Amino acid sequence: MNPNPPLAARQEETVASPTARFLEMLAPKLAATEEVFIQHLESDVPFIGQASEYLFAGGGKRMRPAMLLLSARLLERDSDEEVTYAAVVELIHTATLIHDDIIDHATLRRGQTTVNMLWGNSLTVLLGDWLYTTAMQMALKHDNLEVIRRLCDATLKMTEGELLSLQRLGAIDLTVDEYFDIIERKTAQLFAASCFIPSLMKPERPDAGELLERYGRALGTCFQLVDDLLDFTASENELGKPVLSDLKEGKLTLPLILLLPRIDADRRQLIETVLEDGNFGRVSREEILELVSSEGTLEEVQTMAEKFAEDARQELSFFPPSEARDALEFAPDFVLQRRS
Amino acid sequence: MNPNPPLAARQEETVASPTARFLEMLAPKLAATEEVFIQHLESDVPFIGQASEYLFAGGGKRMRPAMLLLSARLLERDSDEEVTYAAVVELIHTATLIHDDIIDHATLRRGQTTVNMLWGNSLTVLLGDWLYTTAMQMALKHDNLEVIRRLCDATLKMTEGELLSLQRLGAIDLTVDEYFDIIERKTAQLFAASCFIPSLMKPERPDAGELLERYGRALGTCFQLVDDLLDFTASENELGKPVLSDLKEGKLTLPLILLLPRIDADRRQLIETVLEDGNFGRVSREEILELVSSEGTLEEVQTMAEKFAEDARQELSFFPPSEARDALEFAPDFVLQRRS
Question: Is B23 on the interface with A (CB under 8 A)?
Answer without folding.
Answer: no
